[in-house]
Amino acid sequence: MSIFVDSDTRVVYQGLTGSQGRYYGLLNRDYGTQVVAGTNPRKAGADVDGVPIFATVAEAVEAAGATASCIFVPAPGVRDAVLEAAAGGVGLIIAITEGVPAHDEAYVYNRLRRDHPDVRLIGPNCPGAISPGQCNIGITAGHIALPGGPVGIVSRSGTLTYQALYELKQQGIGVTTCVGIGGDPVPGTSFVDCLEAFENDPETEAVMMIGEIGGSAEEEAAEFIERSMTKPVVAYVAGVTAPPGKKMGHAGAIVSGGRGTAAAKIEALERAGARVGSNPTEAGRLMAETVA
Amino acid sequence: MDLFEHQGKELLADYGLPVPPGAVALSVDEAVEAARRLCPPVAVKAQVHTGGRGKAGGVKLAADLDEVRTHAKAILGLDISGHTVGRLLIEKASDIAEEYYASFTLDRSARRHLGMLSAQGGVEIEAVAEADPDAIARIWIDPVEGLAEPACRAWVEAAALPAEIAPAAAEVLSQLYRAYADADADLIEVNPLIRTADGRIAVLDAKVTLDANSAYRHPGYAAYDDTQPRDERERAARARGLQYVGLDGSVGVIANGAGLAMSTVDVVNQVGGRPANFLDIGGGANASVMAAALEVINNDPAVRSILVNIFGGITRGEEVANGILEALQRVTIEAPIVIRLDGTNAAEGRTLLEPRLDHRLMMEPTMLDAARRAVELADGASPPVPAESATPPESAAPASQPESAMPPEPAMPPESAAPAPSEPGGPW
Questions:
Q1: Rounded Cα gap, residues A22 and A17, in angstroms
Q2: In chain A, where are the structural domains located?
Q3: Which of A222, A291, B106, B253 could form a disulfide with A268 if both were Cys (CB 3.0 to 4.6 A apart)?
Q4: In chain A, what residues touch B265 (CB-CB under 8 Å)?
Q5: Residues 151-170, chain A: which have Cβ within 8 Å of B?
């Protein structure tokens, strides 16, 4: 089992004709992902290594049966690409692109909630989602993940997602699904969304959570863990020794209410019952103990 | 991207907000000339990217040109929390009757924009929030809907601003939100927003932070970028397109991805070292990027060893290795380099590096091992070049690593110290 993506997921790539989209889209196909279509309004009717290109996501849904979209278009086009995908009829949108303005993210988040409440957006600025052995959407190198579970991974950081997969593989531990939610200010999918999905996934026995400094997503996750999780959570938070980052003025200090430091996040997670490793390797070892 | 007060005010003025007349001055003479045109009394205000300038003596009122000269002399070059004042705003003095507080920022938890308004302005808003949280009226704004007029009026009412200026305040706040939304600001904070003695509303101070990701649709932002305060190392790194934050230790850190770079900095600290920097080379580390990164680190005289921590996701190990080798040909690196290379095709990458390994270029199997070795080298090498023959790094076996420097629990059990580079057909 898995969350969000599995062997039935049929993916259309927005931006498949670009260099990044083509490279990763075909890599995803090599992994076994059902790469059924690409979109480009100016290249409809063409194909990318046999993958048909349509003008719109709606056409890809209609003609190729796409159920999910993966976005590789440049940052200025992401807002419209997400809205097009949602309107086009896919249920899952994974936006890999980095550098999307925060105001666009906030707009998209609220538009989806209002007009397409059943559509899930993951990202932007994320490595994607992989259910090892079934489906890999995005830029994660598939071979660093062992299939079969019993651990689910959710991570805010790109390379640390790989590091987490690697640490689990070193310990011989398989993964149900690994979701990179991205570290941007308004991600489409939060830690809490993923924790909830893992809690409800019968194959997932424990969750590895990789956080980092800034914002309060880890603290919100801690509240959820304490309130609603029965499955064990092992966490790692990067940035313990980072110097105080960009201060968002006085308003920012009030919004975060003293939250946002690694120490505060670790304390909140430990108080909620999660085990927190002081580095990725230790987190991997704690997970090995947890699922032993 | 933080703007100076005068830049923030110019931006707000473009959106029709009432800003007192003023001019920027980079020298005492410019300050006097600006004051002459404005006609004193004027305020002489230090332009720095930090708060607390009033307390530090960075804001003075000048009744005449002599006073402008005196204050400008005193404030230019002043150190305010580590920021040296290099520019002044000379501004027509305002006749303040009351001071309010207004701001807009993104509330990440609520996924909406948050407006805060208080009749108690001109003081630190944190203090107000603590002493009297109800004195701050908050409004959450759906970015799809925007700030509707009735909601804005209700917000002003909730903040208990004097009834006679409420309509004017609501108008100004609408303009302020428009500026915040249109300009892709992370933060616009006006403290104080004032009512003048003759009943007008004006923006007396402005803290504006813009979202650098939106620069593509705001051509004017390049000018703001040029005035960002950065140390020399950060400027050099930026010129090469690298994400670099200068720190004050002796272990240079290069990693791919912000999370891994941050984690590497943590681990260096955990094993008892002090990082000299945070440097993220991003995805697709090719030779020129790696060379640029090594160059930037090499130019930092405090660096005693360099830790390269690469986890190839899609980036392939042999490309990373070739990048390092090519970089070494292009640049003479003063400090010894410790490499940890994992992920896609790491075995191929290690094979390429192995013939070149010596006491200047080392490889370790894991992030923790590499961090320990780099810290050891940094500690052992007081004057960088000559000392290395006296203390050959090879003799410093991992066993001599001070245990006390490790976290209470041994973070690195021996059994997980894989994969050995020689492992036949290893996991990669």
A1: 6
A2: 10-122, 128-291
A3: A222
A4: 241-242
A5: 155-163, 166, 169-170
